[in-house]
UniProtKB/TrEMBL annotation:
Gene3D superfamilies: 2.30.30.760, Antifreeze-like/N-acetylneuraminic acid synthase C-terminal domain. The gene is flgA. It comes from Nguyenibacter vanlangensis. The keyword Signal applies. Residues 185-247 form the SAF domain. The keyword Signal applies. This is Flagellar basal body P-ring formation chaperone FlgA.
Amino acid sequence: MSARAAIAGVIAAGFVMAHPAHGGAATLRNATVIASGTVRLSDLFADLEPGQDQVLGPAPAPGASIQVGGGQLMAIADQYGVDWLDRSPSAMTTITRAGRILDKTFFSELVRKNLPDIGSGPVSVALVNFHPIMVAPDDPRPIVLSDVDWDQRSGWFSATAYRSQPTGDATQDSFLLTGTVHAARRVLVFAHALPAGAVLSASDLQMDDAYTGHIASRAFTDAGDVDGMTLTRGVVAGEAVLDQDLHRTVLMHKGDPVLVAFTAPGVHLTATGRVLDDGGAGQYVRALNLASGMIVTGRVTNASEIEVEAGSGAVRSDPGVLRRLTASARDDARATLSLR
């Protein structure tokens, strides 16, 4: 039963004096804020006689108000024997139920408490189509979650939220809570905004020990792994460095002349060659040693040099390798000129 209906019920019970009038005069409260779940006679009138106070009915929902007009007030006063000072049919009083708002912060913490596998570190909770709700200020556990489902890979979660003290309104007493939850991770992030095509260096990166954003692919934790790589899209400061946004910067192309360096303890030899593969910094490519005709494998150290490690094997090339490389280089040059 609503608070208004409860008070109307008091009136409907008749205008019979349930208690004799008292000598002292009560005064009407023009506005009252109550904390309990019931409306009492003393919420309408001050200065009642001892023992005269009575429960009239249920209070409005937390945060809601009801108004009681002069006709109802006079009927209630007659019903309970209240000698009301300045009695008037034009009088009006408002009763408001105190409440507290449960906002995103409350629900984010509630979600975290219901995900035991998320750990104790920082957590990012983003709620979808969220609307704050009002509850009683003294309710220690106003909301209970059930049917909690969390996909750790995507971060998506859903749960059914129930009021521990139902209002009687089915649309308000339970609702679906959805969003994303991501636990903190230690990852590299961009130190500042960068455009697509930018080649990364150490100054473009920094470590975030408590990153809570969504990570859609492999995230890097070592700046050395991405040094010299190229961005495939523009990024902003604080974004995680992901492999899907990077590609290896090509420093040398198939057919380019290259210096082949042989390194061993106490020995450093070099020879001229032609690279057989496209290669970026740190990648291993094959190259033809022009002096020996052998094909070796080395690591790209810069745009014109590869380093062959001690013990690395070599295979003999066929006589047509250099001819094919030369022809390929000429074709590439013609294609470049035709595009200009």
